[in-house]
Amino acid sequence: MSDTKSISLKPSHKSLFWWYLLGVLLIPLFGAGLYLIWRFYSAHSSITYIVKDKTITFSDSKVEQNVDIINIDRVDVKQRWIDQKFDIGNLYVITDTDSASIEMLGIEQPHRLAQMIESAAETERKRIAELKKKKPQKKEISKPGRDDRMDYLTGLWQQGLISEEDFERERKHFE
Fold first, then answer.
1. Would you list the domain boundaries of the chain?
2. pLDDT tens-digit readout, 51-65
3. Is 138 strand, coil or helix?
4. CA gyration radius for the chain?
5. Mean pLDDT on 114-130
6. Within 10 Å of residue 6's Cβ, how many Cβ atoms?
7. Cβ contacts of residue 61 below 8 Å, gap of 6+?
8. Which of 15, 38, 116, 137 lies at 20 to 30 Å from 146 by C-alpha?
């Protein structure tokens, strides 16, 4: 089982307010309005944003794009005046490499989400920096049979079969 948390987001249909209004107005023109409403609704419904501990994934019916949280430089929020009334907006997740940037359309409470993403990116950068600072403890690796030979030498010395000078001289070979 994985311990990663994930949040799945979809664009708000409030962001299509003007397209829906235009579609309703165009219904008398041979049903063109119904097609317009269906087209934008289905295109919006296929978009999904998945925010995980370490990545943000954008996917729709044709494309999937991943961005690592640690690479995020900043998150910009764009709102028109009508978007502010509905409390929706577009988020632009900008990374070190421009090719990996993501545009998140029609997100509700965009300023709050932008702040959370920037905070997560900063926390991840600090965590990685701390891991790099910690140096792995050097574990003493003994040669095969070293401990057995040292035990044998110690046994000879304890039994009085070799002198203390001989024991010290031979013990230095094991260090």
1. 6-133, 142-175
2. 887 888 888 878 888
3. coil
4. 32
5. 87
6. 11
7. 46
8. 137
SS3 21: helix
Q: Rounded CA gap, 169 and 146, in Å?
A: 16
Q: Which two tokens stand for residue 63?
A: 């494309």
Report the relative pairing of strands 102-108 and 48-52 from DSSP bridges: unpaired
Say whether pLDDT at 40 is over 80: no
Return the residue matching tokens 């940037």. 101
Query: Which has the closest alpha carbon to 10: 64, 70, 37, 50?
Result: 50
CATH of 6-133, one of 3.40.50.980, 3.40.50.150, 2.40.110.10, 2.30.29.30: 2.30.29.30
Q: Please, what is the average pLDDT of the chain?
A: 80
Amino acid at 11: P
